[in-house]
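[Automated response] Your request has been received and processed.

Submitted sequence:
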Amino acid sequence: MQDSGQTAPLEDLTDEQLLGRHRSGDDGALEVLIERYRLELFHFLARFVGNRTSADDIFQEAFIQVHISAGTFDISRRFKPWLFTIAANKARDHLRKNKRQKAASLSATVDQNQEGGRAFIDLMEADLPLPQEIAQEKETGQIVRDVVSSLPEHLREVLLLAYFNRMAYREIAENLGIPLGTVKSRLHAAVGTFAELWKAQAVPDDD
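Generated structure:
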């Protein structure tokens, strides 16, 4: 069954069909894609570069690039990994251009305190998405953001794609142009470094 999505409402189309419609000259298709990814991609970028204003600029640059490169995209592939790869490349370019932005030391501590609880390594050891209740609790969420932003760029990228954006290892490898084994070893290193930093934020129990 072949459905190019030529007659269906835009909101009902897959990402790939929307990109096909955009390539055919339907301006509204790109707008739907932008809205569909506004929150998820913006949050990924805000965590990556550690700055919401910059994240907004990079978000727009990423979709300009999608528009420019739409004709080169293979519609038989998935759109989301391609989009996130474009966005991650733009974010890396931004970080390189703004080297004056201090990279936080891996041993730096964060002001906020987090009571007891599990070490973060326990939350991330398995191939599972980050538990929502942990990620979204306000105080914990701030510490997570601070710790993620202090990771080296290549570790932060893989961590965000795997755990926060739920990309499969194979997708990450394919879209970053690195071997599957490299994805796994980087993720292992990222989780270990994250766990170390996370423990540094925990408040020791008063006994």
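Summary generated for your ticket: The radius of gyration is 19 Å. The chain has two domains: 7-101, 109-207.
If you did not submit this request, please reply to this message.
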